[in-house]
Amino acid sequence: MPLVVIDPGHGGTDPGAVNGSYQEKNFTLQIGLKVRDFLLNNYQVSVMMTRTTDVTVSLSSRTDLANRNNADYFCSIHVNAGGGTGWESYIYNGTVPPFTVKSQDTIHSTIMGIIGPRYSVRDRGKKRANFYVLRETNMSAILLENLFIDTSQDLKLLTNATFIQDLSEAIGLGIAKALSLSKKTQKLYKVIAGSFQSLTNAQARESYLEQNGISAIIVQVEINGQTYYRVQAGAFSKQENAEARLAEVKALGISDAYILLE
């Protein structure tokens, strides 16, 4: 099984870039843990972290961990500073195998394809540098600079939980594509809060759920040549969690809600 090392930059006595009470080390750890969880939940892959808490880790310890365990890929996560704006990626500026370049292309385009149009994040480009963790790793490696901590518009995104989740999942997806990771075949318990032939009716049901604090999406399906719009109020790996959500939905008066396993 492929092994990916996720490296949240800085930590402990090294805060990284700082803007008031905001410290780079906290953002990088938050993102790194979410990337780990996304990969482990969705792909057949092993993941090691250079740190999972706010501790000081030397640069050599980070690369030694990856080299000692013969990792297949190394991804270092950082937040930029210096008054700019946007997102960029780096690989080593020395001699690298073709896969290092190709994987940067894939990861960069995947991430920017999500956070660019969704959040109007500026693409600062694919770059190369003589960073320690890129130079001293034996495997292909990338370093990601995720926005600028000292730019107000970027900091607003970095403190937005939805953006952090989307960014983290985009990073994970990019790594999965670059390494051609196999997806986990996991069945989900989906809570269906109505199925309609009218999109307008489905949207009304979705809105009703959202107004009552239950997130929902509309999924278009074809059944016997007919188009239906299912209102899905959650998808869960555990049946008991789906049943709890189903009870919430039925408590709102949606008596025909049900659980679909697929």
From TrEMBL:
Domain of life: Bacteria
PANTHER family listed in its UniProt record: N-ACETYLMURAMOYL-L-ALANINE AMIDASE (PTHR30404), N-ACETYLMURAMOYL-L-ALANINE AMIDASE AMIC (PTHR30404:SF0)
Keyword Nucleus in record: no
Residue stretches making up the SPOR domain: 183-262
InterPro entries named in the record: MurNAc-LAA_cat, N-acetylmuramoyl_amidase_3, SPOR-like_dom, SPOR-like_sf
SMART domains per UniProt: Ami_3
GO cellular component, one term: outer membrane-bounded periplasmic space
One of the protein's GO biological processes: peptidoglycan catabolic process
Record-linked PROSITE patterns: SPOR (PS51724)
Species assigned in the record: Melghirimyces profundicolus
Gene3D superfamilies xrefs: Sporulation related repeat, Zn-dependent exopeptidases
Name of the protein described by the UniProt record: N-acetylmuramoyl-L-alanine amidase
Annotated GO MF terms: N-acetylmuramoyl-L-alanine amidase activity; peptidoglycan binding
Key words, A-Z: Hydrolase
